[in-house]
Amino acid sequence: MGTDHTSKIVGTAWGLLILNTLGSTGAKTIVPLPRSLIQMVTMGALAVAFTLALAVNPRLRIRAGAFVFLLTLLLVPSVISSADLESGFGALFRCARLALFVGTLWLLSRWWDGGLTFVRHHIRMYFAVLASVAAGAVVSPGAAMPELYGGRLVGALWPLTPPQIGQYAAVIIGLAVLLLLGRRTDRVSAAVVIVPALVLLALTHTRTATLGLLIGLVVAIGSLFLTSAAARRFFAWGVLCAAVAAVGFGSVLRAWFLRGQSEENFTSLTGRAKVWDALLAAPRTTSEHLFGAGLGDKSFGGLPIDNSWLAVYHEQGMTGVALVAAVIVVLGGVALLRPPSLPRACAIFLISYCAIASYTEAGLGDASPYLLHLAVAASLLTVPATAPAATAEVPRRPVPRWAQSSEVT
What we know:
- By secondary structure, this protein is an all-alpha fold.
- The chain is 66% helix and 1% strand.
- The protein contains 17 helices and two strands.
């Protein structure tokens, strides 16, 4: 199988994984899509991704790594807590989905070599998703920015919520900026990605994605500060622009950040704190404390949890929390031990973004875009496999002509 053909199959499998994690709930679309149809498409995408990964890696060659190993261990509390069916048969279905998701990552890990291949796959696929969002906004501005979401941008062709769109936009903006600083892309190509994504991010009014982007870029560029003149220049210009914006547009930025909310609503994180307090105060058995109540829809009492750590605690218990924390700590520790480089900076950005977003977004304990972001970080931190050294040929002594006879007289 040719290298280019294999690369296309791997990229297609990665794109299908992203399609699987887009979800099936969100805003009302221009053409109503039944939820059952959307679930059929997303789950079908996961099945096809696994099939493609298996077809391109029939000998099951994998790159052993702590990231996918810890995700595999995360299946244990997921299955234990879901087996008693407290959360219904849907919990076992989600366990099967997570197992297939992790299995596909195992198969694709063969191509994790510390390069930027999966970064480019990531950017291309999420840019295509954002293009569909922009197309929906052009076709039907009213459906794309409904009053139900306070005029924030949603997916009008595929049901996507403002936090989802903001997340996708922030991630590809950060990665595109880092590729530009590392001279792995030209300015025109970077602008084609960054400028539209920035517009969409602004229209979503997503604070978590904006903070994650800014803080993640600061940390990632800081990791290149001593070795890259372009990073130092970008950092200096960034500080200058931030100072000018804070002075000249402070009131506008504050209004955008508050989104018309009262101070009380803002300090309670749009009501999230009330759900968190109720979740922590709920009585639990020892088994629920250790292994959770089973994989669900990341809600408690009918309200979204919107916190990865509390969602994992609720569904997979303290065992799940420890495993997810180990994933972040291991990836972060490996990134800190690597020498400064562009792949390391991209990995640091993705890890930082996921860590920040985990406070107000759920997803670290189940198949989600956040696990795919961390999978890209793991691929960037993987040490390339070294080819076996060629055995040096030992020079042979010349054989005298008289000794070349095959017979002894």
